[in-house]
Amino acid sequence: MKALFYPRLAWDGIRKNKQMVFPYVLTCICVIAMFYILSFLSSPETVSLLPRGGDTAQLIMILGCFVIAVFSMIFLFYTNSFLIRRRATEFGLYNVLGMDKGNLAKIMTLESLITSAISIFSGLFVGITLSKLAELGLVKIIGGTITYSLRVDMDCVKITVFMYLAIFAIIWLFSLIRVSSSTTVSLLKSEQAGEKAPKANWFLGILGVVILGIAYYIAATIDNPIEAIPWFFLAVIMVIMATYLLMISGSVLLCRMLQNNKRYYYHPRHFVSVSHMVYRMKRNGAGLASIAIIATMVLVMISAASCLWFGAKDMLKKRFPGDVNFTVRFQNSDLLEEENLNNFRKTIEDFEIENNIETKTILDLPYVEVSGVIEENTLDLGYGNDELLMISKIREVCFIPLSTYNRQTRQNIVLDEGEALVFTADCSVDSDTIELISDDRTLNYRLVNPDESQFYAEEHLREVVPQIYLIIPDLNAIAKLFGETKEDGWGLMSRIWRYSIDIKNSSLSKVDYASAANTAIHNAMENDPENAGNYLVIAKERETASQDFMTVIGSLFFIGIVLSTVFVFAAVLIIYYKQISEGYEDNKRFEVMRKVGMTREEIKRSINSQLLTVFFIPLVFAGVHLSFSFPMIGKLLTLFGLYNKGLFIRTTFISYTIFAVFYALVYKVTSNVYYKIVSDAKQT
Predict the structure, then answer these.
(1) Rg of the chain in Å (alpha carbons)
(2) CB 495 within 8 A of CB 335
(3) Can you list the residues of the chain whose pLDDT is less than 50?
(4) What is the structure's pLDDT at 122?
(5) Among 32, 447, 452, 635, which one is least packed by beta carbons within 10 Å?
(6) Are 401 and 472 in contact (CB under 8 A)?
(7) How many CB atoms lie under 10 A from the CB of residue 340?
């Protein structure tokens, strides 16, 4: 009987506190199941079912496992700290009744073993049950081989068990240290901690506003996508710091300001709610800040991932405009002359005639590409300049023959010597002239703006770096600028011809066409021994090339959904625990209010005023954070080739709307829990 004494106390402690323990265990089950599922999806057996690019999907799933493991450690530690604080009075009573710290350690250890065992076994059961469904979902999103055989990956089971045993062991150890280092009196009075009204800290509040303003300024003013990467992480850290400062100190300032507003404060609906908020905002501001940060993370992830997924076809069309896309790189600029390009065109046409294939030309674009640093109207194309380290000033310059531009746009524009048409993408040229510099050589162009606002080939040439498109009469001028000779090799200048076709009628598949046409071009090149080594030909078929791309985008979309689900669970749990803790704190206060004549209806109105003020602050913060981060996230999406801002606006708005509705439902459910605690009646 004595052997069952401590296990019975541990089980009774869990059972009597089920209102707090059950959500904690449910969250543990959720994160364990998600960890197993992502481990399962990263296993070689699952990767073998995926199309080309499966290795990339595997890496993304492994990174997702790492994120969930780190998040689990931080968040479960946070929620367990709440449970220990709520149970501190109970442990203090055990101490008063004669139990020493060793006895308390036994009870806490047994409770930890019980909750850990339930969480791990239930989490694995849920994970194993849903793993096949997740595999089918991933394969369906990416495209691959669907199988319906069920399996349990024992390696993933071992990794999951080991990972969460370690996490629960660390949480258990810190809980023991916390209780063991507390006195009996501090344990008994733990729930009364924080009753003293906090003082408004203007310095921290103003500091939070300043940090947040700087972060918003950074996010709103970054133009270069490459430059946005390091600044993005700095801005994220600053936003997190500022949010906590504003929620902890700024919220106290807000309550003090409301108290000073006599017309607002001395109103039956607001008086009690504001008075209660003053006492708790300093301590619970961190919880509200956590909700705001998690909500922002969810919105950023789901909106960005959704935008990439729904914009994938558009990105593919720009990256691969035709069914088959040829990219030919030349060693010397004179090979870009029309006579030489006609030889390539004729080789492809002869191949199509021989195989009775009908095609349509989608893109026919020769150009020279080089990078440089811009300063006012001067573009330094040399790479010996330290200014190249100034990423914001780097420009990608594409030189395109005037004859090509006229042919594609069906115009007959004539340029005098030294003139050039100019177009830009993600930058501007605010001068009538531009000077190109390469070492000690210079070339000047007078810029002529045509009656068009967009360059016809911008969507096919668009790069991460801001671009300048110069339409010039003769590409040889650029070769002379660089002092190009046949002995210079491939050099710093890219000489490219892009040729894309759609297949209208063919006995060959698109894959076979690309392979056979590529072979025909190489055979023709061998008959020209003088220039045979001066070409590099790549033929890409859209359907096959898109598999790698869709694998990456689909994996990001899938992992975005999974991580968003985990973070939403975390936000819900924080809100739930805040409602419970504040309900128990306010129970005695509202009991006094009822005794002095406050009716149930007045209590309801006061509670609604209080909860609406407090719990919708994080949603407002998340919306503001998302709005200011929009330009920077948009720039980062261009790294994937997504330039459709309209799509990003729509997905972001829809994501925020859905999340706001869900947040309101969570508020409604948890506010009923709060009201039940403080008044022993459900809110109607």
Answers:
(1) 33
(2) yes
(3) 1, 193-198, 384-389, 486-489, 681-684
(4) 92
(5) 452
(6) yes
(7) 17
